[in-house]
Amino acid sequence: MRKKPVIVNYKATAIALLLLCGSFNSAKAQETDYKAYTLFIYNFMKYVEWPEAQSKGDFILAVMGDSPINKELQALASAKKIKGRNIVLRKCATVEDTYGCHLVFVPNSKSAMVKTLKDQTKDKPVLIVGEREGLAKKGASLSFVTEEGDELKFDINKKEIEQHQLKISGQLVSLGTLIN
Amino acid sequence: MSKEPLIVIVLAILVCLPWKMVSQTDSTAAKKDTIDFYDMSLEQLLKMRAHGVPNELEKLINSLISVASKKPLNTRESPSIISLITADDILKSGARDLIDVLRTIPGLDFGVDVEGVVGVGIRGNWAHEGKMLLLVDGLEMNEILFGTTQFGNHYPLDLIKRIEVIRGPGSAIYGGFAEYGVINIITKQGEDLNGISTGGIYGQGQNDYLHRNAYFAIGNKVNDFEYSFMGHMGDGQRSDQDYTDFYDSTYNMARNSNIKPNYFSASLKYKGLSYRWIGDYYNTSMKDGYGDVVPGIAVQETFRSTFHELKYVINPNKKLSITPRFTFKSQTPWSSKSYTGKEAYNRTATRALGNLTASYNLNRYVNFVLGAEYYQDKAMDHEDSSYFSNGKQEVSYNNYAFFTQGLIKTRPVNFIVGARYDKHNVYGDAFVPRVGLTKKYGAFHFKALYSNSFRAPSIENVNGSPDSLNIKPELTKVAELELGYKLGRRSIISVNLFDITTNDPIVYKTDSNNADIYVNEGGSGTKGVEAEYKLRFKKVNFSVNYAFYTAANKKQITDYSISNASSDTSALLAFAKHRVNFSAIWNPTEKLSINLNASLYGSRWAYTSVDSTDTSALEELPSTVLLNLFINWEPVDGLNIGLGCYDILNQKFNFIQPYNGYHPPLPGPSREIVFKLQYNLRFKAKNRKVVK
Fold first, then answer.
1. Is residue B412 exposed (0-12), middle (13-18) or buried (19+ Cβ within 10 Å)?
2. CB contact under 8 A, B50 and A171
3. Do B362 and B343 meet the contact criterion of CB atoms below 8 Å apart?
4. DSSP secondary-structure letter at B168?
5. Of A25, A150, A171, which is closest to B488 when you measure between CB atoms?
6. Which residues in chain A are closer than 8 Å to B442, comparing Cβ atoms?
7. Alpha-carbon gap, residue B209 to B200, rounded angstroms
């Protein structure tokens, strides 16, 4: 006897799957907590010393390109000061835009710019902070690392920091990992 | 204009107003919190997480575990197929013993051996005799005469902090008892206890009590010194049902199948130096013997073990750690007086082991582990002055081993390679390499693993092997592939495939003189798939898993197969080819949880009778569902009161012997009403300062 064909309602199945996926997607993926990154950057600003000439006026904090961190850094700039100085956030598109800035944050999407940034700001007193792991080895002064267990840590390229005429405090060094 | 829209608007304003006010208050508070947040100390900075405060699921899957690699890695990148069970999972499930906990893990199941002892099987394979390693805080629990572990009302569930299960081979790290898997139980130590913990369980079956246990623990950490002591005692029964052998002799198992745990543990730790002692005295009674009902009163059987461990973790610098470790265990398992059909068994075995392991982090991405191990086994027969094959009352063996592992983490993939070489003075050597690739890419992760593993012949295997047959380790090759995907922040799905091939398995036989012997013979193995889905919201947790195995196209051991009764030889004795576990937890409040869980078993094959020629006959037992409900309530901090019902449908699940040993299925407990109590008194409140 011929078997009765099984009718599969593909349309209904597809809709059900879409609804199911929709319900999953309603929950956000585990996103990067840029507030935590901002807190680290604030401490970098506090525990790194800039030359006398750059220790007056506003503290200029730059971000290369667009990044979700901008919102958190703006909140920081509104809420806090560095040794009595206002924090000013600057969004930069090119390396030239970063001239005159005290600290430059390089988001993941702009990691390739670190080498150019390093070369073109060689003798300038600027702290280059990379979001992507490993950037300290490629010329950033500091770069973030996510350890096993999701702990946020940072690598320190002391040689680069000194080349930029900056001094990093021992307290901050003890928290990070020296790569040279 | 109808008044209805107006009413709706007014109601909406009324409803929204208070929220708006709260929202404004929140906003002010939030601003203050933001300012406080930036003033965090440098020490607090070290606790920050890259992805914010993790939810329960993220905590679970980001847990660092070292059971599969020595070097701690998160569960999604650890180079084994891993299952993780937390103390909270155990508390909310109301599990009565380890069987309840472990049967919820895909691929894990239980069967009966002999004399009422229940052992573990994995992925369709009977792993009771030395194929599955059971560790408690790193100490090997398997008795070394046969390699077995005994399950059912044995270990103290309330004192377990976490259980890590490797559902695959672990020999490249752990040696000859980890051929098919590793169960690593981590118990609560001084810092976890931080005070006193006490409690118990009472379980009432249809005909008699089934559990009545109590435990007590104390521990704390004061500066660099940490101590703990715990005791767990009780009296349970394997079943309250009738057992009937192949010849229609029967008895009621109530008061004839006692399983009495007497488990004690003490630990002292000062900085890197630690000492651990465990006394495990597991006393049972039984009348099922080797299958035929034992006439007269129940036979008392004991499994007595003591364990010592002295360990010192030395860190000459941040990159290197060296750990010398000495353990000694003395075990008198399966000890009973003679009864009809069996002589008295009273043998003690000891193992003195020294292990030196070095772990070196070349940098954050490269780690090497190197180690050496030596142990000496001794066994003594307290009854027979010439029992052992050397014609003496005592026998001694020794084994040395070297192991190594390299872990390289790169952006595209983590690469792990390792191997272990063992050399035994009687049965020779075993070399087991392994290689693995793992990585998580955002929500997706994968693991591709290939391992060799081995089962070391136990003392009784070596002793029971005729010299002419020259027993050697059985070797297994396992390939595994896992794919996983996080569906949002609160759910994850993972699927894995496995293929196990064992060559020359050690099998039990009788020779022409009807004497017991062990030989390497034929082959065995299974392949299959396991899938798991977990969803964790604050109020609702849900998990479901599925496991399937087949022995088709694999060599089979005749006594383990069903080939003489079915043309479909893809199933093996005792273990269902298809298994589903399901658990739903509803937390109406923070203090109350209601857990409904179920284990669904597909049909299982068992020897259930003998024919007119006294040949045992196979039967396919129908599918079974074990449905359980448990409610846990914490009326005051530290006090947990639980009430539940196990096996609501009263299926009276039985344990099947996974080989043709003339032992009918052993009845399990009937429907059981369970009452649990747990009280934790903290010496001092933990620092609850929340970083973020």
1. exposed
2. no
3. no
4. S
5. A25
6. 29
7. 14
Nearest CA to B600 out of B584, B585, B583, B581 is that of: B581
Give the length of chain A: 180
The first and second tokens of residue B660, run together, are 């043709």
Chain A interface includes B49 (CB < 8 A) = yes
Q: How far apart are CA B324 and CA B258, in angstroms?
A: 40
Token pair of B405 as six digits: 């592992």
Answer whether A149 sits within 8 Å of B62, measured CB to CB. yes
Contact of A88 with A114, CB cutoff 8 Å: no
Three-state DSSP class for B469? helix
Instruction: Tell whether the torsion through CA atoms of B195, B306, B516 and B177 is positive or negative.
Output: positive
Phi, psi angle pair for A121, to nearest 5°: -115, 25
Helices (H) and strands (E) counted in chain A, each on its own, are 6, 10
Q: Do A35 and B491 touch (CB under 8 A)?
A: no
Q: Would you call B38 and A39 a contact, using CB atoms and an 8 Å cutoff?
A: yes
Beta bridge partners of B359: B321, B369
Task: Confirm whether the ipTM is greater than 0.90.
Answer: no
Residue pLDDT, tens place only, B70-113 = 888 999 999 999 999 999 999 999 999 999 999 999 999 999 99
Nearest CA to B212 out of B675, B687, B532 is that of: B675
Residue B8, pLDDT above cutoff 50: no
Q: Three-class SS string for A117-172?
A: HHHHCCCCCCEEEECCCCHHHHCCCEEEEECCCCEEEEEECHHHHHHCCCEECHHH
- Taking the alpha carbons at both ends of chain A, their separation in whole angstroms is 79
Share of chain A above pLDDT 90, in %: 67
Tell me whether residues B45 and A171 touch, CB distance under 8 A: no
Q: Is B46 on the interface with A (CB under 8 A)?
A: yes
Crossing angle, helix A34-47 and helix A69-79, to 10 degrees?
A: 50
3-state SS, residue B30: helix
Answer with the residue of higher pLDDT: B595 or B27.
B595
Specify the pLDDT at position A29: 47
Residue A139 in contact with residue A129, Cβ under 8 Å? no
Say if the Cβ atoms of B38 and A151 lie within 8 Å.
no
Residue B282: its H or E element: strand B273-286
Chain B CB contacts of A149 under 8 Å are: 62-64, 72, 74
Helix (H) or strand (E) holding B18: helix B4-38
Q: Which of B303, B304, B233, B309 is nearest to B266 (CA)?
A: B309
Find out whether B605 and B618 touch, Cβ atoms under 8 Å. yes
Helices then strands, each counted (H, E), chain B: 8, 41
Q: What is the pLDDT of residues B103-152, one digit of tens each?
A: 999 999 999 999 999 999 999 999 999 999 999 999 999 999 999 999 99
C-alpha span between A77 and A81 (Å, rounded) = 7
Determine the residue type at A167. Answer: K
CB B165 within 8 A of CB B447: no
- How large is the average pLDDT for residues A71-95? 92
Q: How many CB pairs under 8 A join A and B?
A: 97
Say if residues B566 and B599 touch (Cβ distance below 8 Å). no
Q: What is the 3-state secondary structure (H, E, C) of B345-409?
A: ECEEEEEEEEEEEEEEEEECCEEEEEEEEEEEEEEEECCCCCCCCCCCCEEEEEEEEEEEEEEEE
- B58 contacts A28? CB cut-off 8 A: no
**B578 at interface of A, judged by CB pairs closer than 8 A:** no
**How many Cβ atoms are within 10 Å of B540's Cβ, its own excluded?**
12
- Using a pLDDT cut of 90, give the percent of chain B over it: 79
- In angstroms, the separation between the Cα of residue B49 and the nearest Cα of chain A is 4
Measured between beta carbons, which residues in chain B are less than 8 angstroms from residue A21? Answer: 487
Kindly state the tokens that stand for A149.
């267990």
**Rounded distance, CA B319 to CA B310, Å?**
23
